[in-house]
Design a protein that fits this description.
Order of helices and strands: EEEEHHEHHEHEHEEEHHEEHHHEHEHE
Strand content: 15-25%
Helix content: 25-40%
CATH superfamily of the largest domain: ATPase, nucleotide binding domain
CATH class of the largest domain: Alpha Beta
Number of domains: 3
Radius of gyration: 21 Å
Distance between the termini: 21 Å
Largest sheet: 6 strands, mixed
Shape: flat
Strand order of the largest sheet: 3-2-1-6-7-15
Length: 352
């Protein structure tokens, strides 16, 4: 490996992408790309492609693409996700641009080779992984695709007797870690996540308070601030516009119901996975469950999971120390420790 090489760990999430570099830089951006809708928008924006916070600020003037929304490219096929095949090219281009922009934010040394490790859903197919490698082709000299939960475990030095539950916007991944790379058959990916909470919450709000004007972005912000699944005495009181005038609404019941949509697939996935291992190993796994991803921040989720697993003799559930960068930091650590032959050499060969 070139001693001047720059290493980058990337958590290429459905909603947000975080990067950590051996140069000491960390950053996070929305996993989305915006193109000006017309010449007027192009002149106003002064650029052909928009990233980051400007996507929200200028969203009315942009055609915004989230390349991995509903698992497109990353886990499911376009048909399974309900995306028109003609839009796949735009999604692939958006994925490529997101990766390039994320890498540029780390300010790599000019001329230095760049090697990266990128997280993917646990059960991403060979075809999906190839799409990710192709997206990285122009930004990296070498790249390695690993499961997102494994990168979390690697960053936390939890490489034995650990069950990682990575709750992203588009997928829920459960992965056992026991000292080596887990096989695809040992992992579980379910196409549900934070996006499902947002959509369910928005629907319940519109049903309960049809007079209030609320968008999916507003629903997401409320979830990120107040989201919970356990019994609490607190109320989630939010301000929503009605005919342009702000009014307060109690959304506690609707928010809890939406957040709890995550619980059954997590519990079912854990039960299925734990049941595959010998009894003595089951106990060790149950006592070392780690929640990662943005969904791990839903208040009370750790306690609800522990309660649901009492039938197995109890469990201990812990959240990651940093839901935003845990995956990227673990991927960076792995990138810096891997021999060169483990990377797809993108500048000299086509990905296999």
């Amino acid at each position: 490996m070139d001693s001047k090489a720059v290493f980058i760990g990337m958590d290429l999430g459905t909603f947000k992408t975080s990067v950590a570099s051996s140069t000491g830089v960390r950053d996070v951006i929305p996993t989305a790309v915006g193109w000006p809708k017309d010449a007027v928008a192009r002149t106003m924006l002064g650029r052909d492609v928009v990233f980051g916070k400007d996507l929200a600020e200028h969203r009315l003037a942009l055609n915004v693409v989230r390349p991995f929304e509903k698992g497109v490219l990353k886990y499911t096929t376009a048909e399974e996700a309900g995306v028109d095949a003609t839009a796949v090219a735009a999604h692939k281009q958006a994925a490529k641009l997101v990766v390039e922009h994320a890498v540029s934010l780390t300010r790599p040394t000019k001329g230095a080779p760049i090697y990266g490790v990128i997280g993917a859903p646990s059960r991403a197919t060979v075809l999906n992984k190839k799409v990710l490698v192709e997206a990285a082709q122009s930004a990296f000299d070498g790249v390695m695709i690993i499961s997102e939960p494994f990168s979390i475990a690697y960053g936390m030095n939890r490489l034995t007797d650990t069950l990682v539950v990575d709750i992203g916007a588009g997928t829920l991944d459960i992965c056992p870690v026991y000292g080596t790379f887990p096989t695809e058959e040992e992992q579980i990916t379910v196409p549900v996540g934070g996006d499902l909470i947002d959509e369910t919450f928005l629907g319940l709000l519109k049903q309960k308070y049809p007079q209030a004007r609320v968008t999916i972005n507003m629903a997401r912000e409320i979830k990120e601030k107040y989201g919970f699944v356990h019994d609490v005495n607190e109320k989630a009181i939010v301000t929503l516009p009605v005919d342009g005038r702000p009014q307060q609404f109690d959304v506690t019941e609707q928010l809890k119901a939406a957040c709890k949509t995550l619980v059954p697939p997590i519990i079912n996935g854990l039960r299925e996975l734990i049941g595959r291992f010998d009894p003595e190993f089951q106990t060790r796994l149950l006592n070392n469950i780690v929640l990662g991803g943005g969904g791990s921040q839903v208040k009370g989720l750790d306690r609800v999971i522990e309660d649901a697993l009492k039938e197995f003799g109890g469990a201990k559930v812990k959240r990651v120390y940093d839901a935003v960068f845990a995956g990227a930091v673990g991927a960076l650590k792995l990138a810096m420790n891997m021999p060169a032959e483990h990377f797809h050499q993108l500048k000299t060969a086509t990905a296999a």
